[in-house]
Amino acid sequence: MVATSSPTDLTIIDNIRFITNRHVELVVATAAQIAEAIDKYYNIQETSPVDALIGEMGNVDATVAEDEQSEESVIVQPDSKMITFVNQILIDAYKKGASDIHFEPGMGKEPFTIRYRVDGECYVAHRIDSSHKAAIISRLKIISDLDIAERRRPQSGKIMLRYEGRKIEYRLEVTPTVGNQEDAVLRILAASKPLSLDAMGFSSSNLAKFREILAKPYGIVLCVGPTGSGKTTSLHSALGHINTPVRKIWTAEDPVEITQRGLRQVQVHPKIGFNFADALRSFLRSDPDVIMIGEMRDPETAQIAIEASLTGHLVFSTLHTNSAPETVVRLIEMGMDPYNFSDALLGILAQRLARKLCEHCKKPYHPDREEYDELIHGYGKEWFAVHNMTDFLPELSFMKKEGCEKCGGTGYKGRIAFHELLIGTKTVKDAIKKNIGAEQLRSLAIEEGMRTLRMDGIMKVFRGITDYEQVNKVCL
Known about the structure:
Blueprint: E1 2-4, H1 10-20, E2 26-28, H2 31-41, H3 49-57, E3 62-65, E4 75-76, H4 81-95, E5 98-104, E6 112-118, E7 121-128, H5 133-143, E8 155-163, E9 166-177, E10 181-190, H6 204-214, E11 219-224, H7 231-242, E12 249-253, E13 263-267, H8 276-284, E14 290-293, H9 299-310, E15 314-319, H10 324-333, H11 338-344, E16 345-357, E17 363-365, H12 369-379, H13 381-386, E18 398-400, E19 412-423, H14 426-433, H15 438-447, H16 453-462, H17 468-474
Parallel strand pairs: 1-2, 11-15, 11-16, 12-13, 12-14, 14-15
Antiparallel strand pairs: 3-4, 3-8, 5-6, 5-10, 6-7, 8-9, 9-10, 16-19, 17-18
Helix pairs in contact: 3-4, 8-9, 9-11, 10-15, 11-14, 16-17
């Protein structure tokens, strides 16, 4: 006799019969009553790893749809232990706020490890008996519509899953590894809503400057940084700020992660020859006011975007560069004309994501002189005084991590962005036309009011949002 909180789910009784090979009778109880009974009567750690995981997560009413955007995709119902297990992992990672799931088979009889990346840090979520590794990787390939017989070459696919009324997309990359193994990494792309500019973690000066350039009628705004640094989120926040019925806004993205009412959003498909440059050409024939290009992947896209910004359009895009000044040099090296680019440039926003101190357990403390001097050195001694940073006073206090249940004992919960905003002032534009180097441009931009990523991070240390350890992890 088994208690369930979902008596209308017919798959429950079939799954339990399959796993136990016994006749099963269902009775109804609330989810809270079931969780309480499990905690009271069972030690989950004594069961096998796979069954323990399924027991911990409970039954998940989820369906997995194959690689299509439409709502009428093929539905695959869980009908075996392995199918249910893989679905449970996908849901569990999503519920825990993971951005990526890493499936890592061990050598020989070593356990199969599943790791989640949460707030930019990887941790081991589950260890499973090695006998299950082939079945798990095969199941991931099947629901991603990949070739399960191909084990020598990397493969890419995606999984569409609907859970509690929300559509979640998982981008899968399968890579052959040593020992005739295959690793799989899933990037979780949950459909989400844009954040307001006020919620983006901008300093007051950067927020005022960013709003100022968003008010311009035409020009180009670039958001730069490595993969996973929040570039798309920032651009959608900017679009949300200017998204009004009087403006026609087109976006080309790969994939479309954030949806907004009022935007005309396009998913590019490089496999069929529909790339960012093609989308941009189409937009320019579709009466746009604002255009957002997901990424400048090639000189052709960059050239068309700059030309569009010079012909009366406000253009947003991203690049994978390390800093705002370096972006200018990179684009000119790609063949962009310095005069056209400098005329078009409104601003370049470089950013990184660092872990925030947990709001529930962080503790204030007074730093010693050595720690304070280290912050001065990191900020730059000449600019520390110019920017009126806080003096070393007896009442000066920073925050430090402690660890509690809310943050899993790590002392960190959530992430904060560090920003470096280079504004296209007349001085900066003249310097770009002279083709000066990145270091010279950086010094000039700081004189014009830019704060580097490290400067912005240290300012957030003084505000008690994060600590210097996190600044050092993400900033040069």
